[in-house]
């Protein structure tokens, strides 16, 4: 890791599935995200963009600086037949909350930001939003916290292929309240 360039860490953009592609084409796998955060320390800001329920029941990477959901379930969320779950709405406070937290750390739009969701598609959408807001170095963790679904075998349909947890990277069910997002109703 020492001396490695950011380009040497990045996942090959040509191999990223379309749903996980971003406008900036900056990608890391979970192991690379961990290594980059270790290398840059406080010069990189690592954000878990999953819903509050996901981190509450599935855990969170201990090196994440913050939890700011990109999407969230409203209290009266209707059922989404297409996706087989309750409807998710974009968190309109995502960009402003990130800006507030970055400013509190002395960071800005030119600093390295690492985004991670469950499996890489929501972090890609969040990265696109940040690109539109003028952020220059936003990486999406393509395999996310839980990883991709196994396509066959006895674990078909389970998230056991890759991802933060499957790579045995540091995480915990015990959450740090100071890192968590609380909606401003």
TrEMBL record:
**GO terms for MF:** transferase activity
Q: What Gene3D superfamilies has UniProt attached to this entry?
A: Rhodanese-like domain
Q: Which UniProt keywords apply?
A: Transferase
The UniProt entry, under SUPFAM superfamilies, shows: Rhodanese/Cell cycle control phosphatase
Family annotation (InterPro entries): Rhodanese-like_dom, Rhodanese-like_dom_sf
Q: Where is the Rhodanese domain?
A: 97-157
- Alphabetized Pfam families for the sequence: Rhodanese
Name used for this protein in its record: Sulfurtransferase
Give start-end of the signal peptide.
none
Task: Please give the organism.
Answer: Noviherbaspirillum cavernae
